[in-house]
Amino acid sequence: MKMAKKFLAVALAGVLALSVLTGCGASVKSKDVADALTKMDIKVEQDKGVDATAKKTLDAIETLINSETNTGAGKITLGNAVGDEGKIIDDTGFKTVAGVDNVKKALGMYAAGSDAEKANADKDKKQVRVALVKTEDATKDASLQAAFVKDGLVTASESMSADKTMVEPGKLGTAKTSDGKYMLVVIVNDVVAKANT
Fold first, then answer.
1. Per-residue pLDDT tens over the stretch 71-130
2. Do residues 183 and 81 make contact, with C-beta atoms less than 8 angstroms apart?
3. S-S: 184 plus which of 4, 58, 66, 94, CB 3.0-4.6 Å?
4. How far apart are CA 19 and CA 96, in angstroms?
5. Residue 44: exposed, middle, or buried by beta-carbon count in 10 A (0-12, 13-18, 19+)?
6. Burial zone of 106 (CB within 10 Å; 0-12 exposed, 13-18 middle, 19+ buried)
7. pTM of the predicted model over 0.85
8. Residue 59, SS3 per DSSP
9. Rounded Cα–Cα distance for residues 181 and 139 (Å)
10. Cα-Cα-Cα-Cα dihedral of 28, 30, 33, 37, to 10°?
């Protein structure tokens, strides 16, 4: 009987230890990335609405990548979809590829869409920046993930007019692939007229 009680006590201690460790997530949250980017002079704050936008956008990108027509030498992958020379979004904006309208709609940048689909489409009212980065080597380090994001950020919208400026902080949202190897970051800043000096 004594041995059974000792065994039960050890087993319960093990279960308790596992439950405590399970609470320690292996991934960084949007707020952690936002805080780290702010320390890098990209002033942003986490926003649940932009988290939802990032999730919808990542889903649209993955649908495009998984399309039966995405084959051959120009195949789009998570590694080449977004960036300076991205095959969906590059440093000039959206590329002309089949299915890109769904990405625009998810980002709220589809000018002919519903109110939600065009919420960020006016370059003189919003600036949208995105980064799709590989994070498998930095799943627990917000600063390192933020550094990847800073290096990979591209502006999805056209350049704003010279008489306009971004309002800071911007709103940031993130979404991760189911395997946690890639993270999409979306940053939306309001745009206003420059103050007269």
1. 988 899 999 999 999 999 998 899 999 999 999 999 999 999 899 999 999 988 999 999
2. no
3. 58
4. 48
5. buried
6. buried
7. no
8. helix
9. 8
10. 180
Question: Which of 136, 135, 138, 152 is closest to 186 using CA atoms?
Answer: 152
Residue linked to tokens 């702010």: 38
Tokens of 114: 């519903």
Q: Report the range of poorest mean pLDDT among 86-90, 109-113, 140-144, 184-188.
A: 140-144
Cα dihedral 34, 38, 42, 48, rounded to 10, equals 30
SS3 for 139? coil
Whether the pLDDT of residue 23 is over 90: the answer is: no
Q: Which of 135, 137, 119, 141 is nearest to 184 (CA)?
A: 135
CA dist 124 and 3 (Å) reads: 74
CA atoms within 13 A on the CB side of 167: 10
Over residues 61-67, the mean pLDDT reads: 95
Q: Which residue has the higher pLDDT, 44 or 29?
A: 44
Tokens of residue 35, six digits: 């805080």
Number of H helices, E strands in the chain: 5, 8
